[in-house]
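Researcher: Next sequence.
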Amino acid sequence: MKANQPAYNMKKFLFTFSLVVAFSSTQAQSARDSVLATINTFFEGLKKADTALLRSSLSDNAVLQTVQEKGGKVSVRDEKISEFIGSIVGLPPGAADEKIEIGTVLVDAALASVWTPYKFYFKEKFSHCGVNSFQLVRINNLWKIQYIIDTRRTTGCL
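Model: Next structure:
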C-alpha cells in the first residue's frame, strides 16, 4: 500500500483542489450575475419609464456624472439623480432605450465595477453613444449602483 500512497495523496489533493476551484468559480459567477441583474434592472426601469424600478437599482446617495469635451477641453458635469429620474417621469414606455453591451465586470467583496459601451435611442431615433462606468456596492446583501460616469458622443460609434 505504501508504494501507491503518493499517487493516492495526489488524487486526493487534486479532487479537493478541484472542489475548491469549482466552489470559488460558482461564487464568482453568482456575484457577477447579481451585479448584472442590478444593471439590467436600471436599464429596464429606464426603458419602461418606471421610476420606482429605476430607483430600486440605485443607492440612496448615488452619483451621476458625464465626461464632456468641448473645444478640446475636457470637463466633468454632475447630474443630480433626482433630476435624472425626473426626466423619465411622463415618458411613454420605450421612449428612452439604451442598448448596452456588457464589457468588463470586476467584483471584489462588496465592490463591483462594470463597463458598458452603449447606444442611446430616444423615441426610436439614435441620439448618442459612449461608455458607462458603473461602481456598485453590496448593501444589505443587495447590489446597488453607487456611481455612474459616462461619455457621450454622436460620432465614432461602434
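Model: The longest strand covers residues 125-139. The beta strands are 58-70, 73-79, 96-100, 105-108, 111-122, 125-139, 142-151.
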